[in-house]
Amino acid sequence: MSVQSDIAAAATDQRFGLRRTVRLPGPLKLDGGGALAPVDIAYETYGSLNADGSNAILICHALTGDQFVASSHPVTGKPGWWTRAVGPDKPIDPDRHFIICANVLGSCLGSSGPASVDPVIGVPYAMRFPVITIADMVRAQAMLLDHLGVAKLEAVIGGSMGGMQALAWPTIFPDRVRGAIVIASTARHSAQNIAFHEVGRQAIMADPRWRGGNYYADGDAPAAGLAVARMAAHITYLSEAGLTEKFGRRLQGRDSKTFGFDADFQVESYLRHQGISFVERFDANSYLYITRATDYFDLAEDHDGSLALAFGRTRARFCLISFDTDWLYPTRESRNIVHALHAAGREASFVELASPFGHDAFLLEAPEMNRVIDGFLRAGE
Amino acid sequence: MSVQSDIAAAATDQRFGLRRTVRLPGPLKLDGGGALAPVDIAYETYGSLNADGSNAILICHALTGDQFVASSHPVTGKPGWWTRAVGPDKPIDPDRHFIICANVLGSCLGSSGPASVDPVIGVPYAMRFPVITIADMVRAQAMLLDHLGVAKLEAVIGGSMGGMQALAWPTIFPDRVRGAIVIASTARHSAQNIAFHEVGRQAIMADPRWRGGNYYADGDAPAAGLAVARMAAHITYLSEAGLTEKFGRRLQGRDSKTFGFDADFQVESYLRHQGISFVERFDANSYLYITRATDYFDLAEDHDGSLALAFGRTRARFCLISFDTDWLYPTRESRNIVHALHAAGREASFVELASPFGHDAFLLEAPEMNRVIDGFLRAGE
């Protein structure tokens, strides 16, 4: 296998439009001590870089998200996951911005991850892929920006795990980012956050089909374990009130209880569907690696536990957005970040938005969020 | 197999003290339409019934609890699960009360459940065991009281699923109970409650060792699936703040992260232990049946959705206790019950107690809870 440097391989898929992957030579030094080479990064861009290179916006996706922020997904055929915020006349607008969204390191939509072929031995890495961190993801994104000729970002924007990246960006590359918008996120994973992820990992590893991660050869993946992992995680993305509003105790397509173990309740049927449809689009080993990366995330850790110190070198303006019913990364996490930013003398705005939809609110129709993003970006342009 | 009527089989286990099981002829008519016969009930009693039969207290255990409320557990050897509230000089005192605690129908500590032998075919019921409800559990308890010669209860007391039974008791047997103490419980399972249980059930059923429930012959039980189910459920028993206080992001027996998938964090190690130790004492099929019973619980359902109507026939005094950090059955659920009781013209007292420990607080040291229970009982004696 030849490692080609700095070449963007453009492949056109007639059904789904342009898919872009670049193989960068690396090596990418990793927090865990090792290095990765080559580094594949799959990404989408929208709009074009202006003459003074001042209009680039990097969008960072969430845990199981992808680069198809405003393009249809090649597997599911669904529209981009954030077309509510990205597109013509939206706050992040290809007519005004050069928009970049890359599949994170460790994922399975084209960027290097456990399903990628280890060039040394010619078979997929599986669990030989190095454990990566949020900072490693950020450094890989910076390599992509170098490749694209983007010296500096107007803004980095992300929700959930994407927000962790947006938060980490100015701490790692203080001179390369002017603004950071951090939505429904946190500066460190709590014990409860880790606990939920550990349930998911154990569900995958308990599936006999996982086989220590070596399931790529025959393609018989640990689908059942991954589906259970997704179901557990999915509950944390929704609010209790939202679930009650959406499903309550309504029965699934029948008038009375079956006194059996079929999906009697709509919420059971919905959750099962979430689990089953997830395994069609996501790799179980990638789920292990990316949940691990978020569990390891603690921005204050390398600064004697002080978040304010972590922001000491940053120069970006920050915008924090939380949702009142988000119990995965509650408002207090955003507030802690804002306090630390202010303690560090940084410019930071913060708004808590009302929504019945819990953590997932940032992915749904949220006109207020759009107004906040638009206002923050225009103020910096 | 002969069905012996009304005979209490007493077996002495030298290590663990007296274990009592009674085989009642039944049939026990079930909400699901069928009937169960015979009905085995394993139970413990403490103290003795007084001359006028006015001092009987029935304690109802939680989901995976047992009859060993103040006796050591035969499998784990651990002391009774509620010795903080039950015992000499405790609010529920064998010197004053005749205390009864029975393993619920569907469980696996001696009462009839899926692991019991179906007398018709001579092998364990497994998934042929009928799906049961909280009301079925209560009716089985009433059959035990008949057997023990207890006409009327001074009080029925329970936390969590035990609280559902305590709440249902006066609605099913209005003349047989004078007081009901309902702790950290709810009058109906919410969509979120059902969702978490469904994750657990799917984890068990996804385990290839489950085999449609037919694992008793070779004893190769779906331990991995059951452990994952327990891990997911266990998170809901603890508060986010409690987990942070107990574990935070502290690492397990090492100074730095391993950049691997071992239990790096203490909370991971703790959760894994909870899962592994649970499978030693609990049957996976029982877990399916009992979670189903709680999901089916909705006291208002048979009364046009009106909880006040559900309490219309009750004569008992009620005492509701909730804990401020319980997010499984939050305080608002108890408050709803109290409002309905008051709307029905019933006597009901209510207190929300402060605790950092979430739902599990009722099982831990809670002097305030003890004072409330003691005061309520003495006021009715």
Question: Would you write up a description of this structure?
Answer:
The structure is a homodimer of 381-residue chains. With 381 residues, chain A is of the alpha/beta class. Chain A folds into two domains: 7-191 and 299-380, Alpha/Beta hydrolase fold, catalytic domain (Rossmann fold, 3-Layer(aba) Sandwich), CATH 3.40.50.1820; 193-290, Rna Polymerase Sigma Factor, Chain: A (Orthogonal Bundle). Chain A is 32% helix and 17% strand. Chain A is built from ten helices and 13 strands. Chain A has helices at residues 134-148, 161-172, 191-206, 223-237, 240-246, 266-279, 284-296, 307-310, 331-343, 367-380, and strands at residues 7-13, 17-24, 28-29, 35-36, 39-46, 56-60, 98-102, 117-118, 123-124, 155-159, 179-183, 317-323, 348-353. In chain A, the strands form three sheets. In chain A, strands 1-2-5-7-6-10-11-12-13 form a nine-stranded mixed sheet, sandwiched between helices. In chain A, strand 1 and strand 2 (17-24) form a beta hairpin. In chain A, helix 4 (223-237) packs across helix 6. The radius of gyration of chain A is 20 Å and the shape is globular. The termini of chain A are far apart. Residues 1-18 of chain A have low confidence and may be disordered. At the A-B interface, helix 3, helix 4, helix 5, helix 6 and helix 7 of A face helix 3, helix 4, helix 5, helix 6 and helix 7 of B. Chains A, B: Belongs to the AB hydrolase superfamily. MetX family. Chains A, B: Its main location: cytoplasm.
Question: What distinguishing features does this structure have?
Answer:
Rna Polymerase Sigma Factor, Chain: A; disordered N terminus; 381 residues; nine-stranded mixed beta sheet; 2 domains; homodimer; AB_hydrolase_fold (chains A, B); alpha/beta; Rossmann fold
